[in-house]
């Protein structure tokens, strides 16, 4: 399948920004996706000349120089200092949009293309490094963004619906242990908090403002109703809504956790010992813990595996069990 002109130009810009030295035309032809389709050297030369002129017309500072001290052939690169933007001042809404775009750039769809381009250049012997335009851009997998992993398509549909001010309908579950239920929501925006992604909007089924973690929304997100029908309340603070929901639980809410003797020292120190107890033939202690962020506490308890078992409340117990099952499933997949 032939690569489009726009994609070819993007690949060329990535290559010319990523190299420390100058890349020869021949190396560009063999290494940059979109040029190897040229039937012969003359066709490539014409295509490359058009692309260079187009980059210059766009204001991209293309430089020409010797490929190396030992290779006098003409090579090309983009002057990073001249290419960099001057300081940009953004409003809060604009900064939020840039943050979302930055995360999307790290999504599997885009990260794969970027990494593939750089790997091809390295394989061809071109000395490349991660693109740096003003600030470092880490090229990493979605493991660095666990709150979005697997929810890229959901986020795309939601952002489109928010932009067109259209209601959405989707399956949602309050925890991994709960079944999905259909929710109809007027979306106001998407917010990140402590590495998690949340949709904020008006829940028509509940008749109230609600937040939904994207990782708990099913893949079938469907825009419904006319565009322009959703009105975001004036002055609404989406980040404050999310922070209130995912922050500390009500004062006085506690959990009881059994911890094996000599294990889970962190939980022992954080809680109050209620007394000894045998569980599954093992000796241990029952610890009472304040539930601040239940998500944080569930992650911590999960890390201790069989050495820490939630006794109460059942919601926290089910959350930990669901996390353990998920880890076990991942381990099984890796072994196969």
TrEMBL record:
Record domain WYL: where = 154-218
In terms of Pfam families, this protein maps to: WCX, WYL
State the PROSITE patterns in the record.
Answer: WYL (PS52050)
Q: Show the InterPro entries listed in the entry.
A: CBASS_pafABC_assoc_protein, WCX_dom, WYL_dom
Every WCX domain range: 254-326
According to UniProt, the name of this protein is WYL domain-containing protein
Q: Which organism is it from?
A: Mycobacterium spongiae
Print the organism lineage: Bacteria, Bacillati, Actinomycetota, Actinomycetes, Mycobacteriales
């Amino acid at each position: 399948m032939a690569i489009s002109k726009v994609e070819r130009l993007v690949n060329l810009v990535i290559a010319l920004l990523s190299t420390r030295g100058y890349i020869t035309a021949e190396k560009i032809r063999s290494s940059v996706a979109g040029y190897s389709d040229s039937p012969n050297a003359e066709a490539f030369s014409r295509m490359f000349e058009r692309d260079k002129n187009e980059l210059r017309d766009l204001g991209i500072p293309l430089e020409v120089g010797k490929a190396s001290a030992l290779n006098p052939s003409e090579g090309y690169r983009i002057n990073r200092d001249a290419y960099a933007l001057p300081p940009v001042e953004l409003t809060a809404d604009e900064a939020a949009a840039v943050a979302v775009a930055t995360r999307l750039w790290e999504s599997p769809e885009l990260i794969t293309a970027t990494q593939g381009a750089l790997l091809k250049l390295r394989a061809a012997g071109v000395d490349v490094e991660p693109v740096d335009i003003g600030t470092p851009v880490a090229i990493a997998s979605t493991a660095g963004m666990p709150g979005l992993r697997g929810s890229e398509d959901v986020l795309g549909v939601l952002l489109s619906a928010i932009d067109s001010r259209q209601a959405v309908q989707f399956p949602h579950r309050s925890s991994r242990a709960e079944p999905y239920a259909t929710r109809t929501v007027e979306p106001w925006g998407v917010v990140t908090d402590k590495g998690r992604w949340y949709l904020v909007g008006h829940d028509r089924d509940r008749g109230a403002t609600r937040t939904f973690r994207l990782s708990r929304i099913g893949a079938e997100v469907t825009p419904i109703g006319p565009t322009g029908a959703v009105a975001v309340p004036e002055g609404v603070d989406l980040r404050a809504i999310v922070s209130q929901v995912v922050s500390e639980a009500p004062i006085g809410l506690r959990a009881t956790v059994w911890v094996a003797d000599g294990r889970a020292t962190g939980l022992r120190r954080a809680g109050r010992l209620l007394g000894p107890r045998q569980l599954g033939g093992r000796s241990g202690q029952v610890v009472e813990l304040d539930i601040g962020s239940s998500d944080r506490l569930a992650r911590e308890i999960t890390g201790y595996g069989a050495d820490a078992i939630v006794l109460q409340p059942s919601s926290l117990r089910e959350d930990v069990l669901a996390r353990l099952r998920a880890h076990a499933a991942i381990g099984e997949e890796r072994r196969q």
